[in-house]
Design brief:
heterodimer; A: alpha/beta; Rossmann fold; 2 domains; four-stranded antiparallel sheet; 15 strands; B: alpha+beta; 4 strands; elongated; disordered N terminus
Chain lengths: 501, 212
């Protein structure tokens, strides 16, 4: 019995202690739960990190391709022919891609297909296309058997062909700055793509010379620029004429799909206009070119204002400018032959006939001295020879056309240049699609005054008093000295090349 | 038997296993999950910032390369403001805050054509323009800082061919360039000082660089 009681006690004790047998299991639950939760959490965190890294690298790869395409398109300007330009673009694009996403970046292995250069002759656009892939490592997902993943991207940049007319001031005031101008203008020309872009040149003083725009501009345009030196500069400052002649040259090419641009450089203010003065000579006996019926025959030439405010000119200067590089003036064609002094173009029979006619007119006071012109003319025409108004509702300077003097002639010259720029932007020429050029201007301070308000108006900058946001917005760069000229041309080239992309 | 009896005397301690679980859970949470959560948060924030900084850097550099004006002109100032409006998380204005953007255009001058006489920088990469947006005290460009006396108000270097202080040859470490090549470099730095918790978290600042 006793044993039985003890046995019962034991059994009872055993029963009571039974729950203790599950104790070890309870301790394990925390560990197991922790392990399970950890696996899940680490898996989710790992997935998040791997995906985030992949996303970041994808964005980075896309940026590298984007930069490569852009740099490649920019480099399409370099090279003597289209094949070389394409090769340059491919090389530069590859270099930029590798700079932004080098092989091994974040452990990835990149693969860049050879950049592709294509062109569309109709739209005058060339394209650089980049295709790249990268195999990147996965850090957490490799636990599930995914050790790498491949990301890919593509990018394309376009470059529009540019038709550029460069207008360079070679008036007498440029004598000290001409060598710097030549160097910087040469560099500027080199920025454009031979065989695709078109580059032409107008140089001006009181008159102009023209090299028509062509895709084979090197070395023609460069040679023409290089003829400028301290002994070949001279004359006055006639803005409206070279502006309009440059525009006519772009219109003759007639490529509205290309970026048409005019780069206008000067170191002074306009003081000259080229016009038909016949109606202003008519009242002076014997100082005319005769009449056809009741209409005075054209008397085309330029008049200028000297720095002291007096006037002079008409058909050259009292001391002819040095002979210019023969062959630069174009022969007769769609673009009018320059009406220049005989020192410039002896083949201009029209001009010579007029000059001779006047020279035999004994009543012209100016013939015995340029400064006598004020006694020959009784006013200023309402427009220059090219139809650019000397007075208009949007004129830059107030002018009295019925009085021929230095103040009015200068104001008329300003207004004609200003109006020429406005006419261009209104698309006066070009068929069937108007040619609306971008105009950039550079003003050089070499001791002569620059009118920044006028230069801003020519370029239609945001600082222009007649700024029109619906028209191409140009830039005006003021070079405080010849040392700043390079920077000015760099800025202009940068803008044109950017816009062409 | 004695042992069993002794064990039976511990019955009042039956709750101990539940206490163990609580303690273990507390330990696990405090030693594993909270640090992990904090780590995840910091990593996550840093990844977000890396992505943001790279994106802002890319967009700004692209615009700069396209000719968008970021100078001190009226338009340039407007454009500067737009940049930081794109990424308000950078908590930066055009002249202060926790981030800085440095835009530089560089050119390799390696011939007389690109570096006409007088030329002191023949064979060098030079900075042609440099514009700094944001808090310039945070970090300088990896390629050199142009002194204010060497550039005009729009950031353009006054004498790139003769001023030897504007050289940036370290660009060649990353980018292969030929004579006359131009590159637009954008650098963005973002300070993560706001995440710093002394003794616990030392966040890594974010820097992004792109060549266009």
């Amino acid at each position: 019995m006793r044993e039985t009681q003890e046995s019962r006690d034991m059994q009872s004790q055993i029963k009571r202690t039974k729950p203790r047998e599950v104790k070890p299991r309870r301790r394990g639950i925390t560990l197991i739960l922790l392990a399970i939760v950890l696996v899940a959490v680490v898996g989710m965190v790992g997935l998040g990190i791997d995906v985030s890294v992949a996303y970041f690298l994808k964005a980075r790869l896309s940026q590298a391709a984007d930069a490569a395409a852009l740099a490649g398109a920019r480099s399409l300007s370099r090279g003597a022919d289209i094949t070389t330009q394409a090769a340059n673009a491919q090389l530069v694009a590859t270099n930029f891609f590798n700079a932004n996403f080098p092989n091994g970046y974040w452990g990835g292995a990149t693969s860049l297909a050879t950049p592709v250069v294509t062109e569309n002759d109709t739209t005058k656009i060339r394209y650089v296309t980049i295709n790249a892939t990268a195999t990147i490592p996965l850090y957490f997902l490799r636990a599930l058997g995914f050790t790498t993943t491949t990301i890919g991207t593509s990018a394309q940049a376009a470059r529009r062909d540019a038709n550029v007319m460069i207008i360079l001031d070679r008036s007498g005031s440029m004598s000290s700055a001409i060598s710097s101008l030549v160097t910087d203008a040469d560099w500027f020309v080199s920025q454009f793509a031979q065989g695709r872009d078109m580059v032409g040149l107008v140089t001006f003083g009181g008159t102009y010379t023209l090299v028509k725009p062509t895709t084979s501009f090197s070395p023609g345009v460069v040679n023409a620029i290089n003829t400028l030196n301290s002994s070949t500069v001279g004359g006055t400052t006639n803005h409206a004429q070279p502006l309009w002649v440059a525009y006519q040259a772009l219109a003759e090419v007639n490529q509205p799909g290309a970026l048409n641009a005019i780069v206008f450089f000067t170191d002074g203010q306009p003081n000259t206009i080229t016009a038909d003065w016949s109606t202003k000579l008519g009242t002076i006996a014997n100082c005319n070119n005769g009449k056809t019926g009741t209409v005075w025959n054209p008397v085309i030439g330029y008049a200028l204002t000297y720095t002291d405010g007096s006037t002079g000119g008409l058909f050259g200067t009292s001391s002819p400018l040095p002979p210019y590089q023969p062959g630069l003036s174009t022969s007769a064609g769609t673009v009018p032959t320059a009406y220049v002094s005989t020192a410039y173009d002896t083949s201009d029979s029209t001009f010579n006939a007029e000059r001779i006619a006047l020279s035999t007119s004994s009543g012209c006071n100016f013939w015995s001295g340029a400064g006598n012109i004020s006694s020959d003319l009784n006013g200023i025409p309402t427009s220059d020879y090219y139809g650019n108004l000397t007075t208009s509702p949007t004129q830059y300077k107030a002018v009295t056309l019925t009085s021929f003097n230095g103040t009015n002639l200068t104001a008329a010259a300003f207004n004609a240049g200003d109006y020429a720029a406005q006419r261009m932007r209104s698309g006066a020429l070009g068929s069937p699609t108007a040619i609306v050029p971008l105009i950039d201007t550079i003003g050089l301070n070499d001791g002569y005054a620059i009118d920044s308000g006028y230069m801003n108006r020519l370029a239609n900058t945001v600082n222009s008093t007649i700024y029109d946001s619906t028209k191409p917005t140009g830039i005006y760069v003021y070079a405080t000295s010849t040392a700043d000229l390079q920077s000015a041309f760099v800025q202009i080239a940068s803008q044109i090349l950017h816009l062409s992309q | 038997m004695g042992t069993i009896l002794m064990s039976s005397q511990r019955r009042p301690g039956r709750g101990k296993p539940r206490g163990n679980a609580l303690v273990e859970s507390a330990l696990v949470i405090s030693l594993v999950f909270i640090p992990m959560a904090l780590g995840i948060a910091v990593i996550g924030l840093n990844i977000v910032r890396i992505i943001q900084v790279n994106q802002v850097n890319r967009d700004t550099g692209h615009m700069f390369a396209r000719g968008v004006d970021f100078s001190g002109s009226t338009n340039g100032l407007v454009n500067r403001g737009i940049i930081f409006q794109m990424a308000p998380a950078l908590q930066t204005t055009t002249s202060s805050g926790t981030a800085v953007l440095i835009l530089s255009s560089v050119e390799y001058l390696n011939s007389a054509a690109t570096c006409p006489s007088p030329c002191n920088n023949l064979g060098h990469v030079v900075i042609m323009q440099q514009i700094t947006l944001g808090n310039s005290a945070l970090r300088a460009s990896s390629f050199g800082t142009v002194a204010s006396t060497s550039m005009d108000s729009s950031g353009k270097v006054l004498n790139p061919t003769t001023d030897t202080t504007v050289r940036a040859d370290s660009v060649l470490t990353y980018l292969t360039m030929s004579d006359g090549d131009i590159a637009f470099v954008s650098e963005t730095f973002f300070s993560s000082a706001d995440l710093a918790r002394s003794g616990f978290i030392s966040p890594v600042d974010t820097y992004a660089r792109a060549f266009f």
